[in-house]
Amino acid sequence: MVVSGRDRRVLRNLAKRVAEIAAEPVQAERARLWKDFNALRPRRPMVLAFPEGGWRELIDDSLLQCEDSLLRGWELGLRRTVFHGEHIHDDHPITDFFNVGWVVRIGDYGLSETIFRSEPLGAYRWDAPIKESADLKKLHPRAIEPDRDATNRNVELAESILGDVLRVRPRRHVGWPAVLSWTLVQLRGLNQVMIDVYDNPQLLHELVAFLRDDKIRELELLEREGVLSLNNGPDDYVGSGGIGCTDELPAGDFAGRARMKDLWGFGESQEFVQVGPEHWYEFVLQYQLPILERFAINHYGCCEPLHQKFELLVRHVPRLRRVSVSPWWDPADAAAKLTDRYIFSWKPNPAMICAPAVNWDAVEKATRETLAVARGCCVEMIMKDTHTFAGDPARIERWSRIASRCAAEAL
Questions:
Q1: Could you check whether the bond before residue 234 is cis, i.e. omega within 30 degrees of 0?
Q2: What's the confidence (pLDDT) of residue 120?
């Protein structure tokens, strides 16, 4: 691939700025804080801010200068890193790694949903393909094909452009390995799944078992092919939020190739939020456990409230360390249940900073109240699911400053 002089200059200038930020002493201090925190020895509450969908308002496509589509993607990633380092004053360490994603081609299950959208973003509906039990016979395991040659070409290209500035490495995070319910509702439909719990439980069991087995097959293949990457570094996002930095991983017999037993694992079940604990265990958790048991340390939960399911969670999930405290779980109840035995992974309601107008006094009040009731817990505050800032890009910076100040004063 021939890289234009302009594209090369754009990427190198951004990479040099990333390297400058990564060399700041605060980055190493943040990594040390996370190691203690993840070992349940917090020195203070931790703060993370992830713009997610709101990135569209922080770095508009019009700012991108590279012409090649692959290089534009790299440019976007570098610009986001620079923005984070310069404007989002949280505890996310910036490193001098440049990650090149593994090229892995993944097919379908033989059936897939048809999506209907009225606009590119926002709500949509879909037609689920599994209408009756006979449709289960049309399913087949997905084709999963790591492309080592394509990956190596991309790594070599990155090395030729940035290798003297940043440390280039191929990466494929394990992602959300024990998440089955989202695919389940895509294939069967959310309303129909809720009906199946009572009217057709056998179909539901067969479908979830199929998805579990196919996920295990995917993870085993990626592990065998050496595609998985460790997620214990200072810039490794784990689960539904949190930094995975820890000395507890990888396992003692690690020899350079990441295995599931060297990694943080993760499970969630947002689509079963309206289902009681017994049915949740029957149709979700018991199928997630054979996946979660393969991982060294586990994180559970995202936006769903877990107060009614907590006892089953701690009873069954092996080596549970991080538990998501969503806006729909009362912080006082979460603190009483989590104490100092698990990470209190608090997700403040993003609507507070995404609505047309923001009451910053209320934002600070909610932050201080949560930290007060969770005193003695291992608390991380993670602002995420921020799909808009209502045209005000300064909001994420202001939230991170407020949260960081409250965290420092909570000592």
A1: no
A2: 84
